[in-house]
Each structure stands twice: as C-alpha cells, then as structure tokens.
Amino acid sequence: MFRTIQNKLICTFGNIMTDLIKKPFNVKEIREQFPALRQKIYGKNLVYFDNGATSQKPQIVLDAINLFYSKENANIHRGVHYMSQKATTEYEASRIRIQKYLNAKKSEEIIFTKGATDSINLVASSYGELLQAGDEIIISAMEHHSNIVPWQMLCIRKGLVLRVAPINKKGELLMEEFDQLLSKKTKLVAITHISNTLGTINPVKEIIQKAHAVGAKVLIDGAQSIQHIKVDVRDLDCDFFVFSSHKVFGPTGIGVLYGKEDLLDRMPPYQGGGDMISKVTFERTTYNELPFKFEAGTPHIAGGICLGTAFEFLESLDMVAAEKHERELAKYAEDILDTFEGLHIIGEAKNKTSVVSFTVDGLHPFDLGTLLDKQGIAVRTGHHCTQPLMDFFKIPGTVRASFAFYNTKQEIDLFVEAFEKSLFMLK
Amino acid sequence: MTIEEKQQEIIEEFNVFDDWMEKYEYIIDLGKDLPIINENYKTEDRLIEGCQSRVWLHSEYKESVMEYTADSDAIITKGIIGLLIQVMNKETPESILKTDLHFIKDIGLQEHLSPTRANGLVGMVKKMKTEALKYINQ
C-alpha cells in the first residue's frame, strides 16, 4: 500500500517536473533545431512536406549519432571493457526511456527491431506460430502494405483467414461492419492508428475493447501516430504497438515492437543467432529472456541509443501545442486547396491528423509532384504503399502533403504558389 | 541520321532553355503531341508498371528496323517517352542494343531514369532493348 502511494507520488512529481522543463511551443525556435530545413533545393528554399514518409532530425539527435561513432562505438551485452559497458548502459537506458514514454509496464516489453515493418513481420512470424488453420485475422481497408502483406503470407502458411474491415468514402472505418467481422475465430486485429494516406485517426481504444471482448489480440501500427499524439500503451490496452524511429525524429534502420510481457513470453523466437540465446549445444539451445529473446545478432546500437535521444527531444516538446499547430496547418492548407476547381481532398475523416492528400481532375499526381519538386517543394505522390485503398477510391494515386510541427503557414503559401504554377504548366 | 546524331540534336535543342520551367514546358508539349498508342495495344503484356506512372510500349520489327509506339498516364513521362522514341525509332536492333542513352543525363533529366523515380521509364528502356534483342541477326 505504502509503495503504491509512493509510486503514485513519484509519477505525479515526475510529470510536474517534465512539464516544468517543457518550453512553450515556438515554431521558429523548433525549426532552428533542424538543420535539414535550412537548405536550398534547385536554388529554392526547401519546403519539406513529406513527413509521413520520414521526419527530419533535430540537432540533438545528429550530435548523438556523431558522438556515438566518434567516441562510444563498441559492441553491447558482451564486453567487459569500459566502452562496451558504456554502450550497453546507454542502449538499455534508451529502452527504459521508450518504455516510460509509452507507459509500458516493463522495459522487457520494448523490443528493438529494424522498424515498424520488421516489428509486424516479427509478430506475424512468431505470434503466428500460436495460431491454427481456420483462425481469423482482421485488418482494415486503409492499411499500409506492411500491415497487409505479412498477414497474407502468414494466412497462406498457416491456413488462416484474412478479413478486411471496410471504410466509407470519407476514409473512416465502418464500425458496425467491423463489429460483424469479430467472432470467436478472430485471433488478431491488426490496424493502423493513423492512416498514412488519409490521415484518419482510428478509434483504436474502442477497437481494442471490442476485440478483447471476443478474446482477440490487437496490434496497433503506430508508424504514423507516435510523432503526432501522445501514446499510452497501458491506457490503450493494446497487445502490440509498433513504430519506426525515422518517422519520429530518430535514425533510420531502427524501430520498436511493444508487446505485453505474458504474450511475448509465450511467443517463440523470431530469428536465431547471438544474444538471443541462453545456452547453446549442438543438441539443444535454450533461449534468452525478454527482450533479448527477440534481438538476435548485434543490433543497430547507434540507432537504439539515438532513438532514445529522439524521445528526449519529444519529451522537451509541448506535444499538445505541437499537435494543435499541425492541425491548424492542415486546416489552413485544406481551406485553400478546396477553392481549386476539380481538386478533391482524399480523406475527410472527422478525426484526422495533419495529412492532406488530394487529386486534381485530368492530372496525374506524378506530374504535379515532379513540377513541385523543381520548385523546392517535397511532397509524396503515388499510392503511398496503399494500393487497395487507391483501388477503393478508383484513383492511381494522390499528392500528399504531410506536415510536422516544424512546418509553417508561410511554407504552405509557398506550396500553393508552386502548385498554381504547376497547374498552369500542365493545363 | 545516326542515334548519336539524334542525341546531339536533342542536346542542342535543350541548350536554348534558360530555366527548368522552359524545359518542362517543352517536355509537357511533347507529351501532349505524342501520337497515342493504339488502344488495342494497351494490354497487360505491353504494360510497364512503375510505382507512380504507367507506361505501355508496343514494338514492331519492319524492314530491318524497330518501330516503337508508347504511352503513359503521366504527361511528363510521356514527354520523355517522346524523346526516347525520337532517338530509337527506325533503328536497327544492333544499333539500339549498342546505344548509350547519354542525352537524358546531358539535358538534366537523369533523375527520371533513376530507379527511385519509379515512373516506368527505366523499365521502358530495358524493354525497348529486350524487344530489339529478339530480332538481332535477322
């Protein structure tokens, strides 16, 4: 009892401390921390609106990468020498920082992977081993290919059934239809928190409750959410949560799989190799404990450590104000784009994040993207790795502007100017 | 005119453009002017699926030379197709296979032939050559 009260006090005090060190949100000051934003492309000031694909890195992360390779580079979990000990301590400290940020119960529940795709493949391969022919997996119609294909492969391998929850024309999940897909056969619901193409924020908490009610586990693809909204895995009560470091201001090549401890314990290892073992003989191998059971081989050490630095950066940020700023940017852009004849915003969910996807009658997104690029504007064009979603909307692709908190309304004005020029050239 | 001479002619043509806008306006106009491929030829086996834009290529071997017609759903891709056809059309399979298409780089459009561009053009050049290969020594 005393310990519970004590923990609560520490938590409360900790939150107050964190709030105190947070600076008020100031986009100008934030931009100064991102050197990549201060460059010219084809002689024009860069306007970087491809944050859905990857985010730029703050100076603090760049310095951490440089420091690691300049002075701290050593292999972890095996050396007795000073540098190895230090690298191990930092790598594990990063794991704890991420655990605390996500509010996971234990650091053992944080598995370092190559990224969100790798995390999903890990779950498909390992949790998939616990499933049997006839079991069902539900995904949604707005999933990224990385949350479709691993399940299709698993279904073929194990004789499982893949069900797809439909969406409406606004790009919102149809909850009644989703409810109807749920049954005792459902063993897993794998769904995106936020759609990379549409910006739709799915009601994941409700989905998780409903899935749990039929005994299914839930994987949340957080690749597009963690950089925008505060994620609390215990509040969500999800069984798995995956994301990539590079979309959340950290290095590429590293990501995270959060999984509930009892579930991860029951799952067989994903890959064999060093670090994931307890004892190896030619006859038999016993496996290491969590999280190492799932981390075979030398990991991306610098990536793991510097992802921790990216979270340090996020912790210093007023996320509520940052998200408000991002939503204002999206609203500002949509209001202007709406005035263009023949332009259609794709993704008009009531609850959406700072993604503006659109098409223009008679014009191919590739042409628009090419001409915007020549004017220093980085947007994404194409199907955004969501081909089934493009088929649903009967379009070859969209132009997608995805904003981060370091973007500004002035940049949107430059984008609109470049967009008008592109339209003039193409029509 | 040899393939090399045709390439040089395009390079000279592009030299007069002062900025990217003039260059792309020209490519867009080329794309609009390109005779569209016969609709019957827009078949799966003639489709080169890029990640972004799609390209259809039809080739015929007539009187010892290759004849190409092509189309794309993106106008800039189509314009560049126009240039590629201008260079490769009515050439013998032997000279098509030997050709180094350096003019694309020389006129500053090399990014369109990079694998990341995913516009189907890399696949198209490859297909133009593999089609020519079928008729070599005939």
Describe the structure.
The complex is a heterodimer of chains A (427) and B (138). Chain A has helices spanning 2-21, 27-32, 59-72, 82-102, 116-126, 149-158, 175-181, 204-213, 233-236, 261-266, 301-315, 319-337, 365-373, 387-393, 409-426, and strands at residues 40-41, 44-45, 47-48, 110-113, 136-140, 161-165, 186-192, 217-221, 240-244, 255-259, 277-280, 285-287, 343-346, 355-360, 377-378, 380-382, 398-402. Chain A has 427 residues and is α/β, with parallel strands linked by helices. In chain A, 41% of the residues lie in helices and 16% in strands. Chain A is built from 15 helices and 17 strands. The model of chain A is unreliable at 1-20 (pLDDT under 50). In chain A, β13 (343-346) and β14 (355-360) form a beta hairpin. Chain A has 2 domains: 44-49 and 318-426, Aspartate Aminotransferase, domain 1 (Alpha-Beta Complex); 68-315, Type I PLP-dependent aspartate aminotransferase-like (Major domain) (Aspartate Aminotransferase, domain 2, 3-Layer(aba) Sandwich). Chain B is of the alpha+beta class and 138 residues long. In chain B, 47% of the residues lie in helices and 14% in strands. Chain B is built from 6 helices and 3 strands, in the order ααβββαααα. In chain B, α1 crosses α3 (75-88). Chain B is globular, with a radius of gyration of 14 Å. The mean pLDDT of chain B is 88. Classes of the chains: A alpha/beta (427), B alpha+beta (138). The A-B interface holds A 42, 364-367, 369-371, 374, 381-383, 396-397, 421, 425-426 and B 20-21, 24-25, 28, 51-54, 73-77, 118-119.
What is the number of independent domains of chain A? 2
CATH domain topology of chain B = Sufe protein. Chain: A
Helix segment count of chain B? 6
Q: What's the CATH architecture name of the largest domain in chain A?
A: 3-Layer(aba) Sandwich
Overall pLDDT metric of chain A = 94
Relative helix content of chain A: 40-55%
